[in-house]
Amino acid sequence: MRINLVNRMAASSFKVESGIQLIARLTKKLTNIKFYPHLFPSGLKPGEVIELIHNEDMPICLITDIICTALLPTNLGGAESGVLIFNCSGNFNFSKLVTSMRQKIKSYTKTLDEMEVDDLIAKQFNNLFVVDIHDATQFYTTIYNLENVLLEHTNITMVMFDNIAAFYWSEQGFKIMKIDTYLKKVLSKIQNVTKEHKVIVLYSKPHYFNSSKDAMESLEACYELPSLDGVNYRISVSYDRDSIYLANVKSYNMQQEKRFCINEEQVTWI
């Protein structure tokens, strides 16, 4: 009888998971994050990947605004989520983030004085983690150690890379790796680490980093939704006219255009 039981157990298919997988599975994650409705009207699901393509003249305040909204409490229009930033381009500006958060808080409530606003900002910054990356070696070393960070800080919901192509040229030898091949390689390393933790991955890249395939894709008719190659949202930001910027948002089942302008370094959606 015992032998038969052992045989049945051996023949049955059941999943064996590591301790890291178990901890990640038991960590509660929201099934739908109502976050930044201007770009994600249906919300975001844990594990989704967002690509943000921009021209050099795209204001850094758009990325700052996304970070700010992710950090703010839900009653102030935010997601109250932990955010980990890989600052590869050196564009992250802490003082601008403080200014943006202060203005957003004041736009939602008039009952808090300056000291209370500062206390609220300081509290939300407990959920902000910034890693300054200066070279490719540090970049990959930090990615390999990312799992330890996610295990220690289970409140992290979004991992942001600005920009993911920062060290492309420094990694090229005698044989130049194709741009899309390089991007897939880097994304694969990131997703191998983050997939068990169900965090949202958002990365930016300059518009000139597009491959010829991406360039052709951008010329396709707006009625045809492109293949996103594992990316859930592709957002292309460009200068439109009269100090107005255009954000073209594509997903597997949706495409929309949104416009915004910058007033006193604050994003105003039109």
From TrEMBL:
Source domain of life: Eukaryota
InterPro entries xref list: P-loop_NTPase (IPR027417), XRCC2 (IPR030547)
PANTHER family associated with the record: DNA REPAIR PROTEIN XRCC2
Record-given protein name: DNA recombination and repair protein Rad51-like C-terminal domain-containing protein
Organism: Loxostege sticticalis
